[in-house]
Every structure is written in structure tokens, then in C-alpha cells.
Design goal:
Helix content: 40-55%
Bound molecules: adenosine monophosphate
Structural class: alpha/beta
Strand order of the largest sheet: 1-4-3-2-5-6
Distance between the termini: 40 Å
CATH architecture of the largest domain: 3-Layer(aba) Sandwich
CATH class of the largest domain: Alpha Beta
Largest sheet: 6 strands, parallel
Radius of gyration: 19 Å
Number of strands: 9
Number of helices: 10
Shape: globular
Length: about 280
């Protein structure tokens, strides 16, 4: 696996690959890789001739300094995992390389309603920072396919909008969430949880599953299920839920009918670590 740190080196490498007609797959990450990330890499290796992964802990998408300062870094292990998964190129830029003119935001990108709710409401500035770096990376890599995880459901919807706004023809492939045996969605932040917190974190996916089961009852009401789920999480000592919402899976608007394609999305804090998860409801 080639490890490149400079944009111009990556651009040259990709230009040569494209001249040879190779399809390029791209997996942007913040490192501290786990099986969830590797599934994205494997999917790209399967579908594209050249797989590029980036590891960049993007400072502009962290609204909480403590979260940024404590974000896990496991670069040696990441390199090993990526090589074993068949990744061709790891792009490992410095902050200066990505933001040569400093971290100040340029014009804010406007994604409308979808970026103002849920994660957008609880993490002000997060999506703007995320979209800023993804746009920058896409302009460098110009992949045929961009692989993103369902784990960050709202994020991939916003990136879908970003791709529409940009002039490059990149397809977005959403890869289902990879979970621990316990049901807990894999996340780099899980490494910051102690044994008791890990046990508690399983309640997130349990609550999502329970909501899904309840929805199968024709008499069940969406609002009541949602409220019950939030109250359940709130009642567990050690978990601070931020939201538990059942939304239209395409627009993230509040659904009018149970027959719409639905997704439940949740965010909680456990011992100061913020975790998110989601599950399709029908
Ligand atoms: P991150 O490093 O957290 O920014 O994630 C990089 C990519 O991996 C994003 O597209 C995430 O949605 C995806 N990802 C993270 N965790 C998982 C998981 N458990 N299953 C599938 N994809 C994931």
C-alpha cells in the first residue's frame, strides 16, 4: 500500500490510474479504524480497481474541543488493517495540507432543513466542517464511487446533496452499519468506553430494535413509540439521550404516515462520550 501525504502526489497517482482506465473508489475516514471502516474498504476493493482511503481527523467538524482532543489515534494499526484489506493508497495529509489558509470557514455551505436538525441541531457547525473537508477531498480524488457508512446516516444524505452540487460524476454507495455481536454499532469512539459504559451502550441498539418491533403492531403510534424509547434511555442511569427520532428515511422530515420509508435515529452521551446509531424501521 502506498502512503501519500502530499495532495500533488495523490493527484498524480490518480491521474495515471485514470489514464489506464482504472475505476477509483474512495473511503474518507478519521482513522482509529475498526471492522466497520474495513467493510467500506472491502466493498471498494470489490467494486473498483484502485481504492483510496484517507485518514484525516478534521478539526473543523468538531464542535466540542474535548471530543477533538480525545479522538483516538491508532495509525500503525490502521496501516496494518488497510494493507490487509487490500487498500491501494492511504492519503495521510497534515492539517496544513488540507487547510493551507487556516481553519476559518469559507462561505458556509447551505444544505437547508436536513442539516439543521438532529446532528445539525446538537452539533452546530459540524456538517459545515464535514462538507468542507469532503468537498476538498473529492476535488482531489475525483472518485468514481464514494463509500460511506449508514452509521452516519444524516451525513451521507448531506454528502449526497453535496455531490449533486458538485460537477464531478461520483456515485455514493451507502454501506450498512457493522455491529458488535452485542448489537452495538462499531465506532472509533467505543474505545473510549470502559466495560460498564460498553454494556450500557448496547441499550442504544436494543432500544432501536424494540421500536422497530413495536412499529409492527398496526395499532402502534409513531409518536408514542418515539417518546417511549427516549424515556427508556433517559431512565437508564449513566445514559444521557440527546434525541431519539423516527423520521422519513429520505428527507428526515417528521413522517405523516407509518407507510412512509422510516428510519429511527438516536444520539446519547455515556460518560462524556457521544454515540450515534440508527435503524431502518420498515
Ligand atoms: P469516521 O472515521 O467515523 O469518520 O467514519 C468513516 C466512514 O466509516 C464513514 O462513512 C462512516 O459512516 C463509516 N463507518 C463508521 N462506523 C461504521 C460502522 N460501524 N459500520 C459501517 N460504516 C461505518
Amino acid at each position: 500500500m502506498l502512503i501519500l501525504k502530499q495532495i500533488k502526489d495523490l493527484e498524480n497517482h490518480i491521474k495515471t490510474a485514470k489514464k489506464q482506465g482504472l475505476k477509483v473508489g474512495f473511503v474518507p475516514t478519521m482513522g482509529a479504524l475498526h471492522k466497520g471502516h474495513i467493510t467500506l474498504i472491502s466493498e471498494s476493493v470489490k467494486r473498483c480497481k484502485l481504492t483510496v482511503c484517507s485518514i484525516f481527523v478534521n478539526p473543523t467538524q468538531f464542535n466540542d474541543k474535548n471530543d477533538f482532543d480525545n479522538y483516538p489515534v491508532t495509525i500503525d494499526n490502521d496501516i496494518k488493517m488497510l494493507s490487509q484489506a487490500g487498500c491501494d493508497v492511504l492519503f495521510l495529509p497534515s492539517v496544513k495540507e488540507i487547510y493551507p489558509n487556516g481553519l476559518e470557514h469559507k462561505k458556509p455551505l447551505n444544505f437547508g432543513f436536513i442539516a439543521t436538525i438532529l446532528e445539525g441541531a446538537f452539533r452546530p457547525g459540524h456538517f459545515n466542517g464535514m462538507a468542507q473537508v469532503v468537498e476538498r477531498l473529492l476535488k482531489i480524488v475525483k472518485p468514481d464511487t464514494l463509500f460511506m457508512g449508514q452509521k452516519d446516516y444524516q451525513q451521507q444524505l448531506i454528502v449526497g446533496q453535496l455531490l449533486k452540487k458538485m460537477k464531478i460524476k461520483t456515485r455514493l454507495a451507502m454501506v450498512p452499519t457493522v455491529r458488535e455481536k452485542s448489537g452495538l454499532a462499531m465506532s472509533s469512539r467505543n474505545t473510549r468506553l470502559d466495560a460498564a459504559s460498553l454494556k450500557l451502550a448496547v441499550e442504544i441498539s436494543k432500544t432501536l430494535k424494540s421500536a422497530k418491533t413495536q412499529l409492527r403492531n398496526p395499532k402502534a403510534e409513531l409518536g408514542a413509540i418515539q417518546e417511549k424509547a427516549f424515556t427508556r434511555l433517559k431512565g437508564l442511569p449513566g445514559i444521557e439521550p440527546e434525541y431519539f427520532e423516527i423520521r422519513n428515511a429520505k428527507t428526515l422530515e417528521v413522517p405523516k404516515r407509518k407507510t412512509e420509508k422510516l428510519i429511527a435515529l438516536a444520539a446519547v452521551k455515556i460518560g462524556g462520550v457521544r454515540l450515534i446509531d440508527n435503524m431502518e424501521m420498515n
